[in-house]
Specification:
The protein has 622 residues and is an alpha+beta fold. It has 5 domains: 135 residues, 3-Layer(aba) Sandwich (Rossmann fold), CATH 3.40.50.2300; 102 residues, PAS domain (Beta-Lactamase), CATH 3.30.450; 103 residues, PAS domain (Beta-Lactamase), CATH 3.30.450; 66 residues, Helix Hairpins; 150 residues, 2-Layer Sandwich (Heat Shock Protein 90). It is 46% helix and 24% strand. A 5-stranded parallel β-sheet has the order 2-1-3-4-5, sandwiched between helices. It is rod-shaped and about 200 Å long. The N and C termini lie far apart (130 Å). The chain binds adenosine-5'-diphosphate. Adenosine-5'-diphosphate (ADP) binds next to helix 15 and helix 17.
């Protein structure tokens, strides 16, 4: 059952019931209100919505014409059917003209349902049309006001519509665009393939999305993000193309700018990183190649960086924490000294410099000059970190020590013959008759002094690297033979059995003949001097793979083990030697060592006190 809201304008209740019955029978479920005055009618219109107004034509207080007028005035679109007694033809036409939808005679109420049906249908379609119209209006307003650029073209691309945003952005008036092909806004910066792809997509009935660079009327370019698709009929034929575009010129500009900034920033970061890496490499190179031991420690004592020289000097433990430096120190006194300095640096931020002795990883002793420098490690830590720098000053210290001893020894060794000279001169004055004896003794002292000066000069020249100058290919056997020949008669004087056993063949090697001869002379003369009468001296040359070996072995006084390590030092003389040979200078062996060192060779000694000594020289054959 269809429901129907009926507003009845009727003074006769009976007629009203009759009408309602007809409608109920026609299948309507009725809700209704009956009015018979203009006020009642107006009220009823205002309070509720109605599907139909059925109005009598002539009533005591009201007429069908009034109903129509009031309905028109209300602006409501409700169909009105006049249901009245007989009216003339003329009146009927008038009524219809005045706006009634239809009229039905009360005597022919059977006509009412179909008439009503038709009116309802028409009213419905009127409403639908109105609604559609207002929707179109709303949409076209929205389209006009939209910030997006909207363009509609025919299937060939000829512009049919552009909205305000489109004209605003492009600078064209709508009239200049409509009827013109849409390529008018095309720029040549967009590659043709993009357009081809676009046309293929939209002609296939799909939606194309993409970015296009278009041209304004004034020639300026602008970027749009475009969505384009065909408008189709029910049958699927494309009648138009719709293109909705967002102006993304500003976004593109920002993107490009951002890209430029990013690239610039990346380049800067890269350059800075490369710079830092270079600086780091350089610092590492310096750290790794310097002989100074360097370490950077935090204020809590943790070591942050060390170089290889540091590990060599202080060991692995010290590379972890700063207090381990103390482990390498030679004695308690040094530990206190360095420990105090470390505390002062960390807590008072004072630089400290101390000299200390350490035992290095390989067990050897070293003198070091230790610089402890406070370093600010971070903004948050008020205490300082420490930069430890240790320089190996062993050589410097050795030279200092050597210089001091050398001067003392030289003074002593010069004083002895001078004292001998003055004693002898005094004796000469007292007993001039023993002239020959005094002259002989004076002669001895002078010879000793001359020998001393000669040795000192040799050493001084060796120190200046000036001695090894005349290098030639020579046969060692020949030189040793010459020295042997010189000493044979002297040894014979002492009834010593001196022998020379040369290697059958020796390759020639590069030598300074004069200096090498001095070496052999020193060794053989020592052997003769420190060997008692009638004992044997044996000189021998051999070839040991790529080394030429010269041995001078004697059955002399020998050297005690406590003196052996020192006999190559300048001025060093073992007490047994002093007793045997008063006039020695203590310089001969140090000269031997220097010369052999400078030839790239080695000299060594094996000796037993009271039994004899064997000195061995080893010279590489290149
Ligand atoms: P010098 O012989 O003038 O004392 P050298 O430098 O030649 O000085 O020798 C140093 C020391 O080495 C000697 O004083 C002596 O104690 C010891 N020495 C050298 N050669 C021998 C040797 N063949 N036998 C015993 N001791 C030696």
């Amino acid at each position: 059952m269809k429901s129907l809201r009926v507003l009845l304008v009727e003074d006769s209740e009976d007629d009203a019931l009759l009408i309602l019955r007809v409608l109920t029978r026609a299948g309507y479920e009725i809700s209704f209100q009956r009015v018979e005055t203009p006020e009642g009618f107006r009220d009823a219109l205002g309070t509720q919505s109605w599907d139909i107004v059925l109005s009598d034509y002539s009533m005591p207080q009201f007429s069908g014409s009034d109903t129509m007028r009031m309905l028109l005035e209300s602006g409501l679109d409700i169909p009105l059917i006049i249901v009245s007694g007989a009216i003339g033809e003329e009146r009927a036409v008038e009524i219809m003209k005045a706006g009634a939808s239809d009229y039905v005679m009360k005597g022919n109420l059977a006509r009412l349902p179909p008439a009503l049906e038709r009116e309802l249908r028409e009213a419905e379609s009127r409403r639908a049309r109105k609604q559609a119209e207002s929707q179109v209006q709303m949409l076209s307003r929205a389209l006009e006001q939209s910030a997006s650029l909207v363009m509609i073209t025919d299937p060939q691309g000829v512009i049919e519509y552009v909205n305000q945003a489109f004209t605003q952005v492009t600078g064209y008036r709508s009239g200049e665009l409509v009827g013109v092909h849409s390529r008018v806004v095309k720029s040549d910066t967009t590659p043709p393939e993009t357009y081809e792809q676009m046309w293929t997509t939209i002609l296939a009935g799909d939606t194309w999305r993409g970015e296009l660079q278009n041209r304004k009327k004034n020639g300026d370019l602008f970027w749009v993000e475009t969505v384009m698709s065909g408008i189709k009929t029910h049958e699927g034929t494309i009648t138009q193309f719709l293109s909705v575009q967002e102006d993304i010129t500003e976004r593109k500009r920002l993107e490009t700018e951002l890209q430029r900034y990013t690239t610039q920033l990346e380049r800067m970061v890269e350059e800075r990183t490369a710079e830092l890496r270079r600086a780091k490499d350089q610092i590492e190179l310096i750290l790794n190649s310097t002989n100074d031991a360097l370490a950077l420690a935090q204020s809590n004592g943790d070591i942050q960086t060390v170089n290889p020289a540091f590990v060599d000097t202080f060991g692995d433990r010290a590379a972890k924490a700063i207090e381990y430096i103390l482990w390498a120190l030679a004695n308690e006194e040094q530990i206190n000294l360095v420990g105090d300095a470390l505390i002062r640096v960390i807590f008072d931020s004072d630089s400290k410099r101390v000299e200390a002795q350490v035992t290095t990883k390989d067990g050897s002793g070293k003198d070091i000059d230790l610089a402890l420098i406070p370093v600010r490690m971070s903004d948050h830590d008020p205490k300082s970190g420490v930069l430890v720098s240790a320089r190996d000053i062993t050589q410097l210290k050795d030279i200092e020590r050597f210089k001091a001893r050398f001067v003392a020894d030289a003074v002593h060794d010069l004083a002895t013959p001078i004292a001998g000279l003055s004693t002898r001169l005094y004796l000469l004055q007292r007993a001039p008759e023993k002239l020959a004896e005094h002259v002989g003794a004076l002669q001895n002292q002078v010879t000793h002094l001359r020998q001393l000066l000669h040795d000192l000069r040799t050493l001084s020249n060796l120190d200046k690297n000036q001695l090894i100058s005349d290098l030639r290919l020579l046969n060692v056997n020949e030189i040793v033979r010459r020295v042997f020949d010189t000493f044979e008669p002297i040894a014979a004087d002492k009834e010593q059995q001196i022998t020379f056993e040369p290697a059958p063949t020796l390759p020639e090697i590069t030598l300074d003949a004069h200096q090498f001869e001095r070496v052999i002379v020193n060794l053989v003369s020592n052997a003769v001097n420190y060997t008692p009468n009638r004992k044997a001296i044996h000189i021998k040359t051999t070839l040991d793979e790529d080394t030429i070996v010269v041995e001078v072995a004697d059955q002399g006084i020998g050297i005690g083990p406590e003196h052996l390590p020192h006999i190559f030092e300048r001025f060093y003389r073992a007490p047994q030697a002093r007793a045997t040979q008063e006039t020695g200078t203590g310089l001969g062996l140090s000269i031997v060592k220097e010369i052999i060192d400078q030839h790239g060779g080695k000299v060594s000694v094996v000796s037993t006190l009271g039994e004899g000594s064997t000195f061995t020289i080893r010279l590489p054959i290149e």
